[in-house]
């Protein structure tokens, strides 16, 4: 079966609409005429390679999808996708390991664009303790482990609140990427049972995850870091999530 490549103009229009920009908004932002942008989107004008990359940059299109735009326009992809173990990725690996080690004794993990765990420090075991082996088998999906009834969910005290946070975060990612795999993941996670469906309305300044760890209640909030100037698809899609103590009990437990 032959797959039909969608026109580059149609793809650019879809990315513009995902970013909730009008043609006028994007033309001003990209410093091109609205007429020319309209011609590109409708296929009346064939964009140059530089124009495709320029519009993709203004639309903040992920590198993987920039390659798809180039292919749709008849140009060769420009962004490589290196294995994380490749020699040229040594500085990236070193930076990741430094961040993970520097987070000790607090948990931190590295995830790809679909929330599969790539690397982690030893303290991430706080979240995986007691989780069945089948959920931890590579590629281990962090969201699935968190919300699966047999996973961490059974130890999350504020499951309704944390579930709403994760599903909202994933839903926003689906909206801006149109990733079919992420959509399937969202539908799977949303179908998991939850006896505490409504978020708790507390006075926290961040949404914490509160878990039972043996006879102690631990609370964390997280930050997410990405590489600021990626030129490789693998690097572009990595994110490092770090978990910090949200109360004194957790801080003292981890630094004892």
Description:
There is one protein chain. This protein is 46% helix and 12% strand. With 256 residues, it is of the alpha+beta class. The protein has a 5-stranded antiparallel β-sheet. The longest helix has 19 residues, at 159-177. The N and C termini lie far apart (62 Å). 25% of the residues are buried. It comes from Actinocrispum wychmicini.
Q: How many E strands? A: 5
**Fraction of residues in H or I helices:** 40-55%
Total count of domains: 2
Number of helices: 13
Oligomer: single chain
Distance between the termini: 62 Å
Please tag this protein with its features.
256 residues; alpha+beta; 434 Repressor (Amino-terminal Domain); Beta-Lactamase; 2 domains; 5-stranded antiparallel sheet; elongated; Lambda_DNA-bd_dom_sf; DNA binding; MLTR_LBD; Transcriptional regulator with XRE-family HTH domain
